Amino acid sequence: MFGLFETGFQFFYWGNLLMLLIGGALIYLGIAKKMEPLLLVPIGFGILLVNLPLGGLMDYELQIKNTSGVPGKVISIEVDEASRL
């Protein structure tokens, strides 16, 4: 059991299990019951991929550099009035 705690399963919580069940249910409804398969199968597959232990899909962080110097302003876009015509 020691090796199991060195893998991604140490970050596997009840919410991940619930979402895996929901993803499986959506795939089942899409394939077996033929209820909107073009919609439910990709959504269910995406849910399964995102909730895999240490899949890395939810760990993305966006870092934006504040170039304007104003604390509440992230991006400054200069617009010339003549170029809008």
TrEMBL record:
One of its GO terms (biological process) is sodium ion transport. InterPro entries: OadB_MmdB. Its main location: membrane. It is found in: Cell membrane. Pfam families: OAD_beta (PF03977). The keyword Membrane applies. One of its GO terms (cellular component) is plasma membrane. Keywords: Cell membrane, Membrane, Translocase, Transmembrane, Transmembrane helix. It is a multi-pass membrane protein. The keyword Transcription does not apply. The chain crosses the membrane at residues 12-31, 38-58. GO terms for molecular function: lyase activity. This is Glutaconyl-CoA decarboxylase subunit beta. It comes from marine sediment metagenome.
